[in-house]
Specification:
Layout (H helix, E strand, L loop, with lengths): L7 E13 L4 H10 L3 E14 L4 E5 L6 H9 L6 E6 L8 H7 E5 L11 H11 L4 H15 L14 H13 L5 E5 L7 H18 L2 E5 L3 H7 L2 E6 L2 E7 L3 H5 L2 E8 L6 H8 L6 E7 L2 E7 L5 H9 L4 E7 L3 H10 L13
Parallel strand pairs: 3-7, 3-8, 5-6, 6-7
Antiparallel strand pairs: 1-2, 1-4, 8-9, 10-12, 10-13, 11-12
């Protein structure tokens, strides 16, 4: 896959927005009218991104990190402030119609179905919009109806569909023209477990059998783990990680925890432990109860074995649980804004 020509390429891609700064109230409105003030916000800051055909990529980050702006730049909705972006060799914002033929988009909160007409009529309209000949349309339509079990829904207006039914129809609508790229923006939000499982299985099948390139933004770790092998993390407009999902704990999972169970109630065990670990950097001691201690430490600086050795002669412990970070906890910290990107002292990472 890496040997193929990239299907999506961004270099130094930047998007800035100009936002009015207006004091509150009528006086503020009048002041802004006479002497307007603006500030410049950088939503996407010189990112480099390459995606090859057939890849399935999770694009994650907290609200305001730049995810949606990036997707809008790739789909041609927005024009870059700086840098270059190409999708299948064309600039999306310069060739919006050609780019539309290259992609399908599913938004969890929006629909591309016409609200008051039967679903099958929406499909026919989309077939006309994408200029599909009758044979191609019928073949693709029949495949999607069968795989997604849409036959009972075709005569139903979109406004009468449940959320799960609408998402299945929206997925079919996004693929009616057999695009090589599918953008998924929170596709499983609000879906129940069974519908979510069917949705994921269909995406996996399309990715496996047709080589569909998938770019997913989601807060659902289940979507990410089941659909994507690669993860791109963005924070404050910068890409902070781009690599295999399985390697994310190696990159950011340096904060580890020792959970100690004490043999006897020891109210001042945290003070004793802090004294025993005096001089150890990157270590934090807390005492949830009289019989438990929690030691949070930087695994790049000190090992669990060293900490246990230092504590064994000072604290009456009976059990030790070494808690390794998970991809879920790391992504949660990213969304909460508490994920740290600093390197260990003296590290060349």
């Amino acid at each position: 896959m890496p040997d193929s020509e990239p299907i999506i390429r961004a270099s130094g891609l930047t998007k800035r927005f100009r936002r009015a700064v207006r004091p509150p109230g009528l006086r503020g409105a009048l002041k802004h009218l006479v002497r307007p003030r603006y500030e410049t916000l950088t939503a996407v800051d010189a990112i480099d991104l390459t995606i090859h055909p057939g890849e399935s990529v999770a694009y994650v980050g907290p609200n305001g990190a730049g995810k949606s702006t990036t997707i809008k730049l790739l789909t041609g909705i927005l024009v870059p402030s700086e840098g270059e972006v190409s999708v299948r060799g064309i600039a999306p914002w310069q060739h919006r119609i050609d780019n539309a033929f290259n992609m399908g988009v599913v938004f969890g909160q929006r629909t591309q179905l016409w609200w008051d007409i039967p679903v099958v009529e929406s499909f026919r309209l989309l077939g006309d919009i994408y200029q599909l000949d009758a044979a191609t349309y019928i073949r693709t339509f029949d495949d999607l109806v069968e795989v997604l079990d849409l036959q009972p829904l075709l005569a139903v207006p979109a406004r009468q569909l449940s959320l799960g039914q609408r998402m299945r129809c929206d997925l079919a609508a996004s693929l009616i023209h057999s695009p090589p790229i599918l953008y998924l923006d929170e596709p499983s939000i609000g879906l129940d477990v069974s519908v979510k499982a069917r949705f994921r299985e269909f995406i996996r099948a399309m990715h496996r059998e047709r080589g569909l390139t998938v770019m997913l933004t989601s807060h659902d770790l289940g979507d990410i783990e089941e659909l994507c092998e690669r993860m791109v993390m963005i924070d404050k407009g910068h890409i902070v990680y781009d690599g295999a999902l399985t390697e994310i704990t190696n990159r950011f999972g340096w904060e580890r925890t020792l959970a100690l169970t004490l043999s006897d109630p020891t109210p001042d065990a945290d003070t004793i432990a802090t004294g025993a670990l005096d001089g150890r950097s990157g270590v934090r001691v807390t005492q949830p109860t009289d019989t438990t201690l929690t030691i949070t430490y930087d695994g790049r600086i000190v090992t669990s074995g060293e900490l246990i050795r230092d504590l064994a002669i000072s604290v009456p412990m009976t059990d030790v649980d070494i808690q390794e970070p998970s991809a879920e906890s790391i992504i949660r910290h990213l969304y909460e804004g508490t994920l740290r990107f600093d390197d260990a002292p003296g590290s060349d990472a």
